Recover the amino acids of this structure.
């Protein structure tokens, strides 16, 4: 991910261009169900953002509103300074849906040609077919394509307008490992040109590996928003262990971010949201040795932040 | 996949396509899809021709009005049948073209289109034009079969009857759209086929309304098939213009069109 951050030019310099996504106070209910309950989002051009959350958390409803497929009950959305519909009319935003959205009786190439014809400006058909890895099956009928090939076709269609914002709903479902890796390298090469990417995924490792930023949604609200490392720290914190001979427990407990301190036979275990502060304290003010910091993985954070019982975190 | 890096950065200034995204590539692919569907082609082009050849073609010398023999310039029963089946073919074709939205909704294609610049109006225009092209094919095929089997009419009758059968089918494009936006079925024509046959029977397409019992005649003039049939055959008889038929066509066009617009709105709200 750090490599990812380095290759990205500073297209998102404040004030230079409008935010890729600016949403405030989004709410949407279906009958008695409050699907989205006050979501605020500010996404800079060029960011790769993962939406994580359990089924029914409101990810898809939020995405639908960003695409203008659903109208929020209240709240404002602007995509590159325009309404979702106006952004779509200009080819500034495109999306890869998880299922459907294809005509079975067209060939792969016809589907892309048709879609290309709808935009004022479009990348060449063969170029997007090649980038999506389906150039050689251009003449195949969509109904004869495998699930993975159909997913690549949806991706090819989304590349046509060279959009500023690309929204992906579970983008690599049905792709094999190699396909998934190629897919992400295409995404990252475009992000380097300034493309903003929002993807919903249930592959936590995918969010961890490819997103600059993770937005966790639970029950229609954002429960965490930050880098993968920040999210991990936020949910369960880190555990700092060290061997000590002489220690005042209360002083450690007073360090910023510490949740609990336990000392058993010279073995100190500190659970903290700020492991750096604890480590610094232990190494500079005490005789602690063999210091070890372990972080919980994103899976733990995901479960902790999105489960109904926050106490179940990080075990 | 290949990760060809593209040159340049993502454009910020962008254009909106003219005509809501309507273009000839879109129309061409739409027509190709219609013609790729063997079922549609059979029922819209082959079926009316076969029906005409089997039922109507043998009456090329049988006068519609016994007082006016065909040899003396009278209208043949075959000419009457030919125009009727042309109307029927155009009806089926345009209903199928409009009804195609049902399949597109079921497949999620309409939703996909909504994340492109294509406006709903442009999309519906493509369906209407597709219906017109398919309807024209149906009329031309039936008329060709008529010429081949010896139907003779004054040239202006060919043109006027053909135009009426063709353009009148717009009523059924509207009906197809209405049904297409209402039902979740993948193939609207599976049940619209029998419905249209029923309407054609009671609306004076398959046989003159005057041959039905009086009660059925009274009902028949209200069917959406009655108006088009009457108008398309009017050039044959040279009778006074039938305003009841015109009213029938306009009434159903407005009803189906408004219904389709309402169903469309309901559909896009839900999606």
């Amino acid at each position: 991910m750090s490599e990812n951050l380095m290759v990205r030019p500073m297209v998102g310099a404040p004030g230079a261009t409008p935010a890729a996504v600016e949403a405030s106070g989004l709410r949407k209910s279906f009958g008695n169900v409050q699907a989205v309950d006050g979501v605020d989002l500010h996404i800079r051009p060029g960011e790769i953002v993962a939406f994580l959350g359990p089924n029914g958390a409101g990810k898809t409803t939020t995405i639908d509103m960003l695409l203008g497929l659903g109208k929020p009950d209240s709240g404002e959305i602007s995509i590159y300074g325009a309404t979702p519909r106006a952004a779509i009319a200009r080819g500034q935003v495109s999306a890869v849906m998880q299922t459907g959205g294809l005509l079975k009786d067209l060939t792969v190439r016809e589907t892309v040609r048709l879609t290309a014809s709808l935009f004022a400006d479009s990348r060449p058909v063969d170029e997007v077919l090649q980038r999506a890895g389906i150039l050689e099956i251009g003449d195949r009928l969509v109904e004869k394509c495998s699930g993975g090939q159909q997913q690549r076709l949806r991706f090819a269609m989304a590349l046509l307008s060279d959009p500023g914002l690309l929204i992906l709903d579970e983008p690599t479902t049905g792709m094999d490992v190699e396909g998934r890796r190629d897919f992400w390298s295409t995404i990252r090469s475009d992000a380097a040109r300034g493309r903003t990417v929002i993807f919903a995924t249930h592959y936590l490792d995918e969010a961890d590996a490819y997103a600059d930023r993770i937005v966790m949604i639970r029950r229609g609200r954002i429960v965490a928003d930050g880098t993968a490392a920040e999210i991990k720290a936020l949910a369960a914190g880190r555990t700092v262990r060290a061997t000590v001979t002489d220690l005042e427990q209360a002083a450690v407990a007073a360090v910023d971010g510490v949740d609990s301190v336990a000392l058993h036979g010279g073995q100190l275990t500190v659970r903290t949201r700020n492991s750096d502060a604890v480590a610094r304290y232990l190494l500079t003010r005490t005789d602690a040795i063999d210091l070890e910091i372990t972080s919980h993985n994103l899976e733990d954070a995901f479960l902790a932040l999105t489960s109904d019982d926050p106490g179940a975190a990080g075990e | 996949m290949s990760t060809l890096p593209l040159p340049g950065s993502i454009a910020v200034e962008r254009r909106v396509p003219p005509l809501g995204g309507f273009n000839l590539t879109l129309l061409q692919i739409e027509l190709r899809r219609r013609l790729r569907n063997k079922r549609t082609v059979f029922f819209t082009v082959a079926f009316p021709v076969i029906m005409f050849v089997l039922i109507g073609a043998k009456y090329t010398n049988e006068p519609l009005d016994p007082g006016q023999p065909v040899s003396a310039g009278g209208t043949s029963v075959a000419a009457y049948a030919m125009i009727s089946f042309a109307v029927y073919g155009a009806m089926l074709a345009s209903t199928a073209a409009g009804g195609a939205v049902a399949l597109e909704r079921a497949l999620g294609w309409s939703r996909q289109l909504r994340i492109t610049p294509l406006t709903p109006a442009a999309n519906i225009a493509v369906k209407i034009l597709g219906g017109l092209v398919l309807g024209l094919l149906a009329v031309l095929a039936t008329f060709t079969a008529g010429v081949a089997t010896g139907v003779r009419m004054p040239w202006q009758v060919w043109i006027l009857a053909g135009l009426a059968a063709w353009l009148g089918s717009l009523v059924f494009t509207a009906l197809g759209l209405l049904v297409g936006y209402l039902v979740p079925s993948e193939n609207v024509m599976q049940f619209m086929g029998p419905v249209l046959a029923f309407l054609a029977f009671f609306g004076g397409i398959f046989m003159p309304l005057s041959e039905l019992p009086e009660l059925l005649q009274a009902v028949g003039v209200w069917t959406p098939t009655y108006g088009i049939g009457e108008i398309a055959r009017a050039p044959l008889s040279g009778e006074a213009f039938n305003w009841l038929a015109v009213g029938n066509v306009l009434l159903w066009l407005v009803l189906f069109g408004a219904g389709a617009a309402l169903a469309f709105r309901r559909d896009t709200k839900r999606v």
Chain B has eleven helices and no strands. The interface with chain A takes residues 1-6, 8-12, 14-18, 21, 23, 25-26, 29, 32-33, 36-37, 104, 107-109, 111-118, 271 of chain B (CB under 8 Å). Residues 125 and 152 of chain B are 36 Å apart (CA to CA). The mean pLDDT of chain B is 87.
